[in-house]
Prior knowledge:
Layout: H1 27-34, H2 37-45, H3 51-69, E1 72-75, H4 77-92, E2 104-108, H5 135-142, E3 146-151, E4 163-164, E5 168-169, H6 185-192, E6 198-203, H7 209-215, E7 218-221, E8 240-245, H8 248-258, E9 288-291, H9 302-311, H10 313-317, E10 321-323, H11 336-345, H12 352-355, H13 361-370, H14 375-395, E11 401-405, H15 438-442, E12 446-453, E13 459-466, H16 471-484
Parallel strand pairs: 2-3, 2-6, 9-10, 9-11
Antiparallel strand pairs: 1-3, 4-5, 6-8, 7-8, 7-12, 11-13, 12-13
Helix pairs in contact: 1-3, 3-4, 6-7, 8-16, 11-13, 11-14
Amino acid sequence: MTKAGDDATGSARSVAKGREAAPPASAHTDDLAHMPAHRLAPLIRTGAVSPVESVEAVLARIEAVEPTINAFAVVTADTARAEAKRAEVVVSAGERVGPLHGVTVTIKDLAGITGLPAARGSHIFAGEIASRDAPFVQRLKAAGAIVVGKTTTPECGWIALGRSPLTGDTHNPWKHGFTPGGSSAGAAAAAAAGCGPLHQGTDAAGSIRVPAHFCGLAGLKPSYGRIPMVPVGLHDLASHGGPMARTVRDVAMMLSVMSGPHPEDHTCLDSAPADYLGRLGEGIAGKRIAFSPDLGHVRVDPEVAALVRAGLSAFSEAGAIVEEPGTPWGTGGIDLARFFWKAHFSGFARFLPEFRDRMDPHLVACIEDGMAVTAADYQLQRERKYAWCSEIGRWFGDWDFLVTPTASVATFPVGQLAPDGWAQHRWDWMEWAEFSYPFNFTGAPAASVPCGLTADGRPVGLQIVGRRFDDLGVLQAAAAFEAARPWEHLRPPL
């Protein structure tokens, strides 16, 4: 099945008091589709669950919810079924299997999978077929994961929302008619809706963390270069690949498989993956956490702010030292993200003569603004950016982690660049996403984890940022928070 042209009331509640899972129509099948990878993989390895049964459960879930959420650009049902049968034979024969054997995964439609469309949410690339797997796709397959489809993205991943001129609007499973965020829009919607456990995203200015925040998920933007990107992104070392899932353990499992150097990415790190899963439970006792509610300048919705602040006690309960020291560097990057965003997307100007009328009009406006940027402008702003990154790095010398809201608002209606009451612009969507881009610039690891639901049932996440290369520490902090404020039992009212 492919799609390539369709166009609660009361006070804010903590995650632990959120909406419980409703009894599904077919409990066994539905539970398999929702089962996290860290529980499913051992059951498949021992033969307690068949890979065929698991894949069929996920495909049934996709078929049931896809008309509502529109999370997939391509569903690879036939290939997934064939791979599941092969996986079952391997288990039956007692052969050695990988850590994700028989577990399903989705891939964002910015990455290549051999023989599948690579449209990137755009009419510009509609009809293009990938000739090879991206490196992290190769690694996921080698670990035994079974790809069930490619998930939707806004045009070329340009915006932190779930709208595409090619595939239409992707909807948030927690509130239909509202955005799941983006640009890893379909990945977030599919994960929240229970379409299997593992989902791959990318993040150049919040595109993993924002949809994780909007959809009640764990999502990690790892240190830059931890996961190789081929081809290397054109956002001046700001584009990161990473995992998204409903549990931190699943994020850790996925990161372990996807990480490591690759000869075709000259910017990737040369270190092998750490034992992210095995060391996840080491805790954060004695770690120093700086909390910033606003980075000194960011407007935050009061309900979001209250939920994030209430979540801080989870870190104290885990033995960490939480303080609120201020971020003197916070206002330094206000203009940098907008400058580089329009400058980098100005490269798409070559497509305007043929495709302007079939492109996202807001992306067109961004491109047009970027066309005025000169090489001298770019170099001067780059100098500012690198100095700012150095300042942030020095500040982190005193802290193990920084905790902030992941974004300023909870999910809002599709078709809008910003919620009602927020500044409206011809293309700039970043006012409500100011917490993201600093850590794309610095390349530091940053995770979003759910910390509650608004009064009307919209998820809210808090962001945990670590020192560069401390992906393990960020995951340990996220796991400590998850243990104190569990959310896996919650499901959207889909």
